[in-house]
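Methods: example folding runs. The two proteins below were folded one after another, and each record is reproduced exactly as written to the output file, sequence line first and structure-token line second.
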Amino acid sequence: MYLSVIVPVFNEEGAAAKLHAEILAMCQKLNQPFEIIFINDGSSDKTMETLKALSPIKIINLRRNFGQTAAMDAGIKAATGKYLATLDGDGQNDPADIPALIATLERNDLDVVSGWRKNRQDKHSKRWASLMAAFVRKHLINDGIHDSGCSLKVYKKECFEKVTLYGEMHRFIPAVLRIKGYKIGEDVVNHRPRTTGKTKYNWKRGVKGILDMFSVWFWQKYAHRPLHLFGGAGVILMLVSGISGLWAIYARIFYNVDLSNTALTMLSMFGFFIGTVFFVFGLVADMLSKIYFGVTADSHYDVKEVIER
């Protein structure tokens, strides 16, 4: 299989058939083996009935609405193509851009090519929210692309051999893959206004996305060495509280300071206790990290190829 096109849909009965026709026309022009995978993410309208009338198609019907990330993960795991193309089910992504993304990937020997919606056709409120999220993302995880939130992307199948998506992580797949050493690129793509249905984005998804962004940041920096973060913070707290405690003792002995009228001793003891807790937590997290990498297929490095001559 050359290409798998993966489309999560939730209540998109008005867009699904037209989008499938566009994907099919694009795939037929490639003159390569392909599959079209639609994931019905617990739709409550007639999306499932619409999908059943289409062909060729592979339908993955989830039992309830698990979210776009879970639906995309289900589609990726079911895909068999050499290249995987993902896009939104609302029709705003243009399937005609997929061949250009594949060409960019092959020409530059990349593992992922992300679409860049340079001329977005969304409402101003959504565009401002995306700009704010992009600013935070750039300074927190810096995945090296302009528009990580664009669902239109092309991946090599091997990118997902050790990756499982959760939460709102579909927005940060390039960042996760970059952590593992995969080469990321981007291309400007067409973005179309929504003509049917309603947007599924709201403030709750925004908050979840920010939290997942911190998760990616932690994974990037400290997944295989959490003791450096928690243990380091604990040692600093213990040192500061130790110094303040010594100062309190010095002030009591040499200046006869009444320590019952100051919070210095309490803060010193409390800081030393919290620092000890952080240090112990860092040790436990370090052991859990080693257990995770030991019992799963994941690792903190990824081998691209082995060459023998």
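Second run, written to the same file directly after the first:
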Amino acid sequence: MVKYIDLDVAIQNSNSAFLKKMPKCVISLLKKIIHQDEMNRILNKYEDCYGVDFLPKIIEELQLTVQIEGEENLPADGRCFFAANHPFGFVDGLILTNTVGKKYGKLKAIGNDSFLLAPHLKPIIAAVNVFGSNPKAYLLELENLFESDSPITHFPAGVVSRIRNGKIEDKDWQKSFIKQSVKYNRPIVPFHFTGRNSYLFYIIYLIRSFLGIKLNIELMLLPYEIFNKKGKTIHVKIGKPIMPETFDNSKTSAEWAQYVKQQVYSL
């Protein structure tokens, strides 16, 4: 069996002294928390499935029931940005890409380069490093993608929702997708996911924020959150496309990004 996910190797290859000092018993516990063996089992089971063919297999494995409202708002021409809030970390991305892929037969997802650990996803991932600078190859790939006819899925927050101002929501959305919408004449189709991660995820976030720890420890729980959604119903609502000409000079790109975020949450 191929070991696609290997926490030991990931820790050794990381730049974190904190992670490298962790006792073996803690690492063993983390392997169980992130369902390392289960993830590798699934990835090996569907080793011959790639891209849009792989997505429904994972939805089936997780026994997810997906209830979508507003599918009629998906335009005939998929040359759009499909932008969503990011409450889950993976399951929302899985459903977003599967919905778009099923409609148009193809897509590219702007996603964390860590997803490339699963070669099954490589055909649909336009990789970015959300925690640092991006290599020129990544930036060139993105420019070529924006110019293409491919549908693009995107989480403009860049990171998973946290507790903010007493409620769980995205941080301010990044402005780049507004600029690209205007430059490449791509409408933005808003998606809203209802739901949250476990309380444990947010408690760890609050504790490490209180202690001033910059390392996003709670992200280690995201694989756990995948299996925590197993057998659940996920509610999604799709809004009407927002045309590029909407984004005029009455607001800055950053302000328009928050406007689109508000439209998503109003769904």
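Comment on the second run: The chain has two domains: 1-45, 51-266.
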